[in-house]
Each structure stands twice: as C-alpha cells, then as structure tokens.
Amino acid sequence: MPPGGSMRTQIGELVIATSIVQLANGFFGTFVSLRVAIENFDAAGLVLSAYFAGFTVGALRCGKVIERIGHIRAFAAFAGFVAGATAVMPLLVGSLAWAVLRAIVGFGCAGIFVTTESWLSAKASPSERGRVFSIYMVGTFLALALGQLLIARADIEAAAPFNVIVALFTVALIIVTAARAEPPRVSASAALPYGVLTRAAPIAVVGSAVSGLVGGVFYALVPAWMQVQGTTQATIALFMLVAVLGGLAFQIPVGRLSDRFDRRIVLAFLSLGFAVTALVMVLLPHPLPTILPAAVLLGGFMSTLYPVCVAYAHDCMPPDRVVAVSARLILVSGVGSVLGPLIGASLMAHFEINGVFYFMAAAVLLLAVVSGLGGLLTPAPMRREVPFEILTPQAGPLAHDPLDASDEPSQLNDRL
C-alpha cells in the first residue's frame, strides 16, 4: 500500500475509534444523569460534576503520560481507565464511590481525546489537515447525538448499560492498538504565566468559565429533571439529540460570522440568544413542538460560546502561545463545568428546574453585557489568522494539540 493510503488508513481508524468513544460518552453522560436521579443520592451534584473535574485534570496532565509511553500505549491506558471504572460502578452504588469513578472516567476520556487529536495533528499532511479535522469534529458530533438515541432503549436501573459502555470503549481500544501505525513525534509546549491571559483577553476568560458552567448544568441536570417530571426516555433522548445536532448546525454559520465581525459582539448576541431561549423554556408550556425547537437553539447557542472565546483569546495573544492559551482556557472552562452541577443541583432542590434555567440565563446575560460593552468601548484586536474552529461538546476544548506547538499556527489555519 502506498504511504498516502497507509496514512489515510491510520487516520480513518483513529476517527472511527474516537467516534465510538463519543458514542459511548454521549450515552454515558445522559444515562448517569438519569440513574443518579433514580438513586436519589445525597451528593448528586458532586457525582455529576466529578466527570468534569476528572476531565479537566486529564486535559492538563495527560500530556506527560503520552510523552512518557507514547500515543498507542497511552490510548490503551486511558481507555482501560474508563472501561475499568465503568465496570465497577454497578458494583459500588453510592455517591462517594460514583464521584471517584466518574472522575476517573473523565480523566480517561480527556486522555483519549488529547491522544487522538495530537496524533491526528501530527499525522495529517498540511494540505489535508483541515479536511481531516472537519471530518473528525463532525463525526464526534454525530456520535454524541447517536449516543442519545441509546437512552430510548436503555433499562436505566439495570447493569446492562454499563456493559454496553465498557464494550464500546473496548472496541475503540482494539481498533487503535491493532492498527499498524507509527507513533507521532512528541514535544512539550511553553507554559503561560497566570494572569497574562486574563489581562490580555478578560472576556475570553469570563466566557470560557460561563460556557463551562452552563454546559455542565445543562448536560448533567436537564435530563434528570425531565425524568423526575415523568418524561419518557424516548422524549428525553430526542430532546438531547436535537440539542447536540443544534450545536453541530450552528458551528459553521457562527464560525463565519465570528471570522468576519468583532468576536465580542458575536459572543454577546450568542449569549443573549441563549438567555432568551432559557427564559422561554421557563415561561412557555412544554409540549414537544415547543421544547424541541428550544432544544435546538439552546444546543446551538451553548456549543458556540466556547469556540468564539477561544478564537478571541488567540486574537489577543502571540502566535507562539496558541497551545498554552488553549490549555489555560481548558482549565477555566473545566472549573466552570465542575461548579455548574454543584450550584445547579442546589438551586434545583430549592427552586426546581425554573431556578436552574434562571441561573443559566443570568450567567449568560452577564457574559452578554461584558462582551457587548467590550466590543462597543474598545477596538477589536488585530486578527492573527487563527480562525474559529468546530469544537464538540465536552471534548471541544481539546481541539488544540497540547503536545506540539512547533507548527501550530499553520495547523490551525488549515482546519476550517
């Protein structure tokens, strides 16, 4: 087989394996939200936020693991973490045990995504890198969406869903470890002192935190609330499916607007759109013809907040800090994702779901005011030719290779 064909095969195997992981991950996130509601844990918010805590730590630390043992073995190790923790969950049913296990799952998933995306970035040729990452991101969006469909047929109270998740991660592990692939080159990137990014792009930092906060609340608590209200699993699955697909549908048009106009003004309109939609969810009746369009809009506005913040941050920082900036925004978004379910669960206990939607609307309205005023009062920064990129929910912050900054600006230009 010619080298080009072999390389395409390797890339195809990676994309398929990661799409399977996202299929499992999309199902797992909604499933755990529903199962935690059934178990009625005292520390439900802690269990739901633990995944994001593990994911954040993994995104920031797993690069060292990859540097030490290589991409293929690292992928196997991270997938093993996820499969092992998932298999133990039905054996140790309790809030503390599940919080620890979900944190391990989050750490392993972050490791899988970092490994895959840095591998793709290194293996794809510059002329094909944009197409490769577009296929990869669309594939992961669709896999996340399809994962929601599994909810409709799942027995939430049984152990079988855990076995399905373990099986999917195992299949992905087999695909990658059985592949005839050469591991890519690995090099570390420069650190970014704390405070530098906040001073240079405060709106990007605030926006990343709010994006993580809102995303954590939405994916962790909304399915659980729908189940408590007696909504059928099929309807919950459909609601989450259209939310993810709404996120996919918004990526390209918002990306084009973001690359043409002041990103802060675009961010303000996205924030305002999300806040209005969240309030509509509270004030209007909840038949399917109403909530499904609302789910599309919520998913669309929510999924584009973070990528616009990332692109704006890169506008404000030197090109050699691209990877370090992405890593810092991962941390900020991750902290928001951890706090979101904790705060949201407390609000839902006192004010039911209306309090959660008001909280999300208030947080995003604050972002709209901050970004709108910033766009009106100060000139836009000089563009550094780093465009908006398609980023998937949950895994989106990892779309920048955290391991190799040597040719990052050219990589980013090729992606979209």
Q: What is the name of the CATH topology of the largest domain?
A: Growth Hormone, Chain: A
When the domains are counted, the total is 2
Main β-sheet, in a few words?
Answer: none
Structural class from helices and strands?
mainly alpha
Which stretches of 5+ consecutive residues score pLDDT under 50?
A: 1-5, 395-416
Say how many strands there are. 0
- Kindly report how far apart the N and C termini lie: 29 Å
Number of helical elements: 13
Q: What general form does the structure show?
A: globular
CATH-defined architecture of the largest domain: Up-down Bundle
Strand content: under 5%
The whole-angstrom Rg is 20 Å
CATH superfamily heading of the largest domain: MFS general substrate transporter like domains
Order of helices and strands: HHHHHHHHHHHHH
Counting copies of identical and different chains, the oligomeric state is single chain
- Give the overall average pLDDT: 81
The CATH class of the largest domain: Mainly Alpha
Characterise the protein shown here.
This protein is mostly helical and 416 residues long. The protein folds into 2 domains: 3-187, Growth Hormone, Chain: A, CATH 1.20.1250; 196-399, MFS general substrate transporter like domains (Growth Hormone, Chain: A), CATH 1.20.1250. Helices cover 78% and strands 0% of the residues. It contains 13 helices and no strands. It has helices at 3-39, 44-69, 71-88, 95-123, 129-151, 160-177, 196-200, 202-228, 233-260, 263-283, 288-316, 322-377, 408-413. The radius of gyration is 20 Å and the shape is globular. The relative contact order is 0.16.
